[in-house]
Structure formats: C-alpha cells, structure tokens
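name: query_chain
kind: protein
chains: 1
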Amino acid sequence: MYEIEAGADMELFNRVLFTVTYAKSETRDQILQVPVPAATGFGTQWQNVGTLQNKTWELSLDIPVIYQRDFSLSYKLNYDRTRSVVTELGIPPFNYGPSSMFRLQEGERYATFYGRWFLRSCSELPNWATDFRAQCGPGQAFQVNDEGFVVWVGQGNSTGDGITKNLWETQLPGTQA
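structure:
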C-alpha cells in the first residue's frame, strides 16, 4: 500500500482560512470473497485478487465572524469526496451482493451497482422477507407513477404528493407546507 498526500493552507485578508488536501492511495491484494468453479464444492472463496486506487479531495473554509478575547464565533464549511476504482482484478469480473446488483470489474468504481430492469407493475416487486406486493397500489407505499414505473411514495401518499405535501423536504415556491 502506498499513499501520497499534499495540502495547502491559505489565509485571506488576515482572517479567512482556506484549506485544500489531495490524497491518492493504492492498496494491493485486496481480500475479496469471489465466486469459484462449482467443481470445488463451494460457491465462493476469500482470495487476494484486487488492487484498489483511492483519490480524495478535502476542502475547508473557516470564516471568523466575532473574535474577542473572551468569545469567538466562526463559520466552518467542509467538503470531501473519495473515489475508489478497481485498477487490477486477477479474476474475471463478477456481480455480488443482494440480487447481484454490484459489479466488480477493472476500471469500474468500487461498489458500482447496476439494475437489470425497471419495475412496471406491482407483481414484479419481490415477495421475500417483507411482502412488498401487498404494499403496492393506490394509497399504498408503492405505486405506479405517470411514466409507468413502480416508485416508493410512502403509505397514504400518491405519486403527485412529493412537492405539494412537502414530502422529503421538497416544496413548490410560494407554497406553505
């Protein structure tokens, strides 16, 4: 494993502090649970097979508003982003996780997930663990929207209620929730 990190602190107007940091790391021989041939008698095996590269940006801004001997007040804003990419995989690409929705493949970001299709009727909802089909239909938690896709709207709501009822902190300009 290696890591390179660089950063800078800058002070503006003798008050405002701005910090930027960039880090890049590479981890080799990732231990992953991978599928193995059926002839082994097992479905998966833990192997050292992957190389993962991470790139991270961190930014912060510190703005002092009040600065006195016995009291100070400042606003701080922080931002960071990390991207992890599989740069080497010693085995063929494969899907894993619930419903095999994650894809592990060279050149892809780690934990990239793919859907196989969009649900268009309540009968396509899964029926394991929780009976999702029973929660689908008018007035139910899942409904078919005006584009023909099954979407979650929450119990007692309709597909058009998101903005008008201020669900999920959405709001039409000029309306009160």
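note: The beta strands are 2-12, 16-35, 44-67, 72-89, 94-96, 102-104, 112-113, 142-144, 150-152.
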